[in-house]
Amino acid sequence: MRAKIQTAVLGATGYAGMEVARLLSRHPRVGASLLFRREAEGHGNEVVPPLNGNSQPLQPFSWEVIEKDKVDVLFLATPHDVSRALVPEAIERGIRVIDLSGAWRLKREEHRAIYGFCDSDPQKATCLTDTAVYGLPELNSEHIAGAQLVANPGCYATSVILALAPLLRAGLVDRERGIISDSKSGVSGAGKEPNARTHFVSVADNLSAYAVFGHRHVGEILEQLGLESAEFTFTPHLLPIPRGILSTIYLRLRQPTTACEVEACFRDFYAGRPWVRVFAPPQLPQIQFSLHSNYCDIGFCLAPDGQRLVLIACVDNLLKGAAGQAVQNMNLMYGWNDKEGLN
Amino acid sequence: MRAKIQTAVLGATGYAGMEVARLLSRHPRVGASLLFRREAEGHGNEVVPPLNGNSQPLQPFSWEVIEKDKVDVLFLATPHDVSRALVPEAIERGIRVIDLSGAWRLKREEHRAIYGFCDSDPQKATCLTDTAVYGLPELNSEHIAGAQLVANPGCYATSVILALAPLLRAGLVDRERGIISDSKSGVSGAGKEPNARTHFVSVADNLSAYAVFGHRHVGEILEQLGLESAEFTFTPHLLPIPRGILSTIYLRLRQPTTACEVEACFRDFYAGRPWVRVFAPPQLPQIQFSLHSNYCDIGFCLAPDGQRLVLIACVDNLLKGAAGQAVQNMNLMYGWNDKEGLN
Amino acid sequence: MRAKIQTAVLGATGYAGMEVARLLSRHPRVGASLLFRREAEGHGNEVVPPLNGNSQPLQPFSWEVIEKDKVDVLFLATPHDVSRALVPEAIERGIRVIDLSGAWRLKREEHRAIYGFCDSDPQKATCLTDTAVYGLPELNSEHIAGAQLVANPGCYATSVILALAPLLRAGLVDRERGIISDSKSGVSGAGKEPNARTHFVSVADNLSAYAVFGHRHVGEILEQLGLESAEFTFTPHLLPIPRGILSTIYLRLRQPTTACEVEACFRDFYAGRPWVRVFAPPQLPQIQFSLHSNYCDIGFCLAPDGQRLVLIACVDNLLKGAAGQAVQNMNLMYGWNDKEGLN
Amino acid sequence: MRAKIQTAVLGATGYAGMEVARLLSRHPRVGASLLFRREAEGHGNEVVPPLNGNSQPLQPFSWEVIEKDKVDVLFLATPHDVSRALVPEAIERGIRVIDLSGAWRLKREEHRAIYGFCDSDPQKATCLTDTAVYGLPELNSEHIAGAQLVANPGCYATSVILALAPLLRAGLVDRERGIISDSKSGVSGAGKEPNARTHFVSVADNLSAYAVFGHRHVGEILEQLGLESAEFTFTPHLLPIPRGILSTIYLRLRQPTTACEVEACFRDFYAGRPWVRVFAPPQLPQIQFSLHSNYCDIGFCLAPDGQRLVLIACVDNLLKGAAGQAVQNMNLMYGWNDKEGLN
Prior knowledge:
Oligomer: homotetramer
Helix content of chain A: 25-40%
CATH superfamily of the largest domain in chain A: Dihydrodipicolinate Reductase, domain 2
Distance between the termini of chain A: 26 Å
Structural class of chain A: alpha/beta
Largest interface: A-B, 41 and 41 residues
Number of strands of chain A: 14
Radius of gyration of chain A: 20 Å
Shape of chain A: globular
Largest sheet of chain A: 7 strands, parallel
CATH architecture of the largest domain in chain A: 2-Layer Sandwich
Order of helices and strands of chain A: EHEEHEHEHHEHEHEHEHEEHEHEEH
């Protein structure tokens, strides 16, 4: 029996990858992690930059090093096509994978189309699509525990699914009237690649909507919640802040309901789940409250008619929306406490 | 015939009042304005602070000075109760008033209740409520032209009403399915009074919703658009930027419609209106585009089903949402060009 | 022998006090802390707000509760006059105090004058002034270990003193030519009290200098570094960020020196000190690098003449500049590792 | 006699070029401007984006179009090597040039070296270097009036030179003790090119120094002020704001002096100069005060010893630091009022 597991991170210079590396470096059950850079990331042999800690050595990706180090879990913080190409070999080698990209989240081909890997997809990848487990611990913990391949959810999707699942599963929502999520994200959600959209001057003192009716995260939201495309409208916005997501969600309840009943629905659903905090009205989550934590905060406001409901859900897009959730999934996969290494 | 009219501004140290003073100082048809401070604003006899220009003398409010200066138009950038108290006398003295507060915007008592001035309201004020004209030039120019008292619209309301009026008046909207405005505003919309909510550390790196189902601007939106309370949901959010509003508005069209038809509806409605810019898809307004201008920018995105519609409307809350619109109203009241003094 | 010590925090709703409470709640050697609110802070019996964690109960300050709980260390995150009034009794009761205010940092009366407590100072307080220990662990660890009363340094002072001490103590600085610190701080350094200066609209998109030649932290910098007033110029600026300090320090070396020698001077001085990171040229610290950590980062740039030297020093004003340093002092007082509870 | 002059702008999609285009479109003495894009800027035939106004047509650069349009003044908002290549032909064709790059600002070859165009410089360019006029109107108006080629100053340089010139020319400064400018700039000063440094996440919640002892603007500051390299230290910093510069300048006066004398020195020097505002102590300029204006604001704080002096100078880097100053230079070149088109 080994005291600690061995982990590796590929893409450790991106925002999410750096957070995974940082969390693993403090995790009591994890040995020193291998940090790999992607080829596109240059030739430095140094460093995750010394943000809030000391730098760590970075090396080019190599299966040999992975085998030699007896890596148990490989975290992929890579573009979806890189994940699509690498994962089959990792699984063959018996290495468990937690993939932070969108490569394995979607079961239905019509949703995968937006990622553009449907046609060229090798046979191996197609098989894995069916066995990959959607890594939202609060909804899916049993399957995650035994998974070889965990598809870590999208940041927006995490906030929307966690806010809607309790009400939908309880059959309280008038789905025909439609559900809307007006979501707002900090800029790290757009990735580290510099472009005109992420230039400081484009973002500061600004707010903009984008990808209306066409965002990649819609597919996983529909699949996880069992919604049809026509039932769900999603508008993401780019906020002038580095990190954090707030989703304002609008729906109509099937019957007049009290705030107490709504709150009870959430509290029952998330009983024993340490990383979801349900707010009692009139208190509402704000982005600051969950920043730099693994919490998903959920609050709501019910109209006097008892039917129109506004939900507010917040996550830190790099933690509960990415790296923190990935570590939470690892905890589940090894039977450790949900909070291990995440406080 | 006098070459220029005389104006006065009360509340010239607040954000909106300062902008009115700045605009009037550059208006070719307006002489040097009297700038009054409110009593609550201390005893300095100096200054609108030298933002982007030279400071201007400030004095305590006085009817005598107003009479002596033969003021034609009085701009009130004051709390609604101050406006409620002062306006009857101004009207009696034959001075036209453009009031930036919420004191005179609402016809229906149930909407006015939220301002709390219903009970103590003097008879004179009640009469004026009926004769006050809602000062949204693109919808109401004929009544504004002859008005003695113009109730300048709220900043959020301006963005929402201008975005919705064309479609509603054309009967295209399925009102039963409900209309939602998810609106986001910069901090100057919350006023200059320092408090825990406007402290830099509370706002920066944050986003928060507030006054859900209970914001003061809902009443004027309902009245101007002829909507019932149950048909409209409004959620304002506080953005970490100094100024600017973006409203994301969700509705369902009664019938499948093309983007061309939607765009044509907007272009027809706003033909000849220089301060509304209609964006052709897929371009969408952003807060930056209308900042420091009097424009209201409107764009939209139509779902493939041709029925679900997302509107984006942006204004600078201190200009088209307050001071710029006030000057536009003055232009209408004197038969000048809509753009006079606003470029 | 007790396994853990007991601590209490007074002023646990302010920015620094909240950070102290947060750090103590995770410290492995500390039991559940008592959190006291100051009287001025209202009557809520709840909460440090649930920032990144769960809320904690808050109570009015009481010596009885402190005695009953057998508090070992009392942290004061209070205005200096409150600290001045409370500390003598705490010391009499045998409770060790770590005071985050400026009440006990200054030995020379001419420096204390700026705080205004010289005249009314009780005899007890005057005695304590002499025995209070300036709590900068990297310079003063021996005295801190045995101290009853630790005066936790100011945030600006921490960055300036740690950057200058190695060179001054090595006699390398041409003091006659003068030393200048141009320092910039995030807004949390100005405290939680809302006022015109901390209003979001006043700070965003802005930078301003203040208290030039008159800032309270100058006294402790002079005393700790043994400088005369004429030798040191200090200009603080208010940055549009919530937290973090960067000091750009200008001095002239007595003799032409190499960058290697300068770096060696810093590395020797801070050998074995985990919370100071010395940067090798040309890398320079940035505020982001030390944010949310207890590090003080120091870098430098030497002119080609080998004499003009620019130092850059960064701290998180709420951690190494306040709460983190306070916990580091507690670690020293109890003989624990410098890093205990601070990772 | 033509009523209006004809102008053209090359580089009208960059930050400074867009501001030039915007200012020219409102200038009463200027006809519709030609707007050229640089080849590197893609093939769109549209637009300066509709920031605060309507979009304007953009075309590829062409001498034929310039000749056909009888352009009087060509504004270059281009990289210095593009300016270096284009200007000789413009001058030959009799077109006056206002160049916003660093191509023609420097007389001394040792200063030009940093731009890297010394070796490959054609003969024509070398000649023009001598005849180019440094376009700082408050110091150099006589030469600008008759200039064929105006080298528009750098943004940092404008703030530093205007703050120092009055005292240096009056012989009040102890130059041997050294002058330091600790300058801070918004991100638009770094240009529109997206890169790791200008990514929102790199800038927000941050402050960083760069190019210490090696910034390109040092040369023009030394030349214009007649300083030796050893007498002047310059440290630029990148602020988390879109625009605006604040320079904090440290110097020692040769003799004890009163604040009145210092203020008088500035007021005398800038008498009749509308775009420099001198602040009376204790009021100091802030970046917000001059934002979106062509003002350079100057204030100061004198130590009790009457010799240590801290100057604060602010400009909007895109206006007085670039486009506004360019238009001011054009006003001088045609004998118009300094303020024409700049209010």
